[in-house]
Amino acid sequence: MKRLRWGILGCAAIADRAVIPAIQASETGELVGIASRSAGKAKEKAEQFAIPKHYDSYEALLADADIDAVYIPLPNHLHLEWTLAAAKAGKHILCEKPLALNAEEAQRMVDYCKEAGVHLAEAFMYRHHPRIARVKEIIASGEIGELRAIRGAFTYNGAESKGDIRQVKAWGGGGLYDVGVYPLSAARWITGAEPEAVTVQALFSPEHDNVDMMASGLVEFAGGVALTFDCGMWASFRNELEIVGTKGSITLKPSFLPNKHNDGITVQVGDLLREEKPYAVDAYVAQADQFARVVWGQEEPAYPAQDAVANMKLVEACLESAHKRERISLI
């Protein structure tokens, strides 16, 4: 069977924990190589995961004709540089979220990849899980009535991890970039629309390079529908999404980190509670397979790269609102 040959730029924890195993378990992918700028680190990871090739520079991996596509899990401020470099080398690109530091950078990446003729995707794995399509079906069926509200939460406590890249402001640190992007992207997907305005309150911590360690907000959509959300890196762990209609509600918990043992859907209409059975699907594997099929022309992208630009515009507005402590209009 044809295989998409992958390379990984960097040895981030997310690659170790999820993406490397997913590519190796996918129907479509083959992990060919991994690169690091730290001498010996790529070799160590290659041995750990039985990856055939390792490189002591990102440039060396991009120069390898045996690599078709790259996954970029580098710190946020490096996404632009290495996406452009990969596109110039003719590689298709799966880049970690958030795609860029702002909408302008994201648009530049999208345009450059389009000109280079390579596929660019933002790595929001949860959106490729089959239950996401099922949620849209339930909403469209009218079972929960008309959409009235969305509530999302994604928090964890990483405050003691001093020096973590998520706590470096110049590198795109902060809770909105790290986990806030999940409920924000989910609300845009659920409504099928772009928001009209945002109001956000945030805790900018001097001990953590003044990044937003916690944020809570209201995102307004047309028709009186709104997302209320909170996100951050200095609170107890929560991972929830609730969609509320006039007749009932849909709950996904865990929402943005579904796992093979807990990826069902809860629907409540009146006093009736229905649990849809778990799918037992690895969302990271689903993401890798969809990416390959897009590269081969077998499918259209489930989420076009331009979607990442729209999400970055929303993230920027949230940060502006938090800094200015005022409502920011997006129309």
Automatic annotation (TrEMBL):
Keywords: Oxidoreductase. InterPro entries: Gfo/Idh/MocA-like_OxRdtase_N, Gfo/Idh/MocA_domain, GFO_IDH_MocA-like_dom, NAD(P)-bd_dom_sf. Residues 4-121 form the Gfo/Idh/MocA-like oxidoreductase N-terminal domain. Gene3D superfamilies: Dihydrodipicolinate Reductase, domain 2, NAD(P)-binding Rossmann-like Domain. It comes from the Bacteria. Pfam families: GFO_IDH_MocA, GFO_IDH_MocA_C3. Transmembrane segments: none annotated. Residues 133-250 form the GFO/IDH/MocA-like oxidoreductase domain. PANTHER family: OXIDOREDUCTASES, TRANS-1,2-DIHYDROBENZENE-1,2-DIOL DEHYDROGENASE. Belongs to the Gfo/Idh/MocA family. This is Gfo/Idh/MocA family protein. It comes from Cohnella boryungensis.
